[in-house]
Amino acid sequence: xxxxxxxxxxxxxxxFVSILLPTLYWNVxxxxxxxxxNGALYYWMYGLLYAIITAKSxxxxxxxxxRYTEFRPDMLGIICxxxxxxxxxxxxxxxxxxxxxxxxxxxxxxxxGMIAYYVGVIMAxxxxxxxxxxxxxxYPIPFLGFYVCIVGGILAFVGGLLERY
Length: 165
What we know:
single chain, 165 residues, Butyryl-CoA Dehydrogenase, subunit A, domain 3, 53% helix, elongated
């Protein structure tokens, strides 16, 4: 039980923290008629969007920055978030107690929830008429919440494997 318990605890906590961090990131850059537009969009799994749009003209030194926030929950994000929360609870409550396979199962749930979310977002972009945006480079990039959940799931998974062998 020596090396297993810290891995399980850190993995479960990281899975919990990941749902509070932005999961996807879009970077948009275009230039037309001497005006350069840059946009950074951060998207949380539960539907929060935060955008920073900057416009700059090559004819003057004036730069305009606008921030935008929107909350629009979607079912894919909510379902995958519940899977990750379930994996974190299973990892922390049962994995730290007596159940030997719980950390392994919790890690798999965390990994599956986040990967299913990212693949679901990509498929939704391809199925809907926004495929042209994907072709133009408006493609979601996994961001901090994605990687934190993957690391947490791997740690819980490895902690469960150490208990089994």
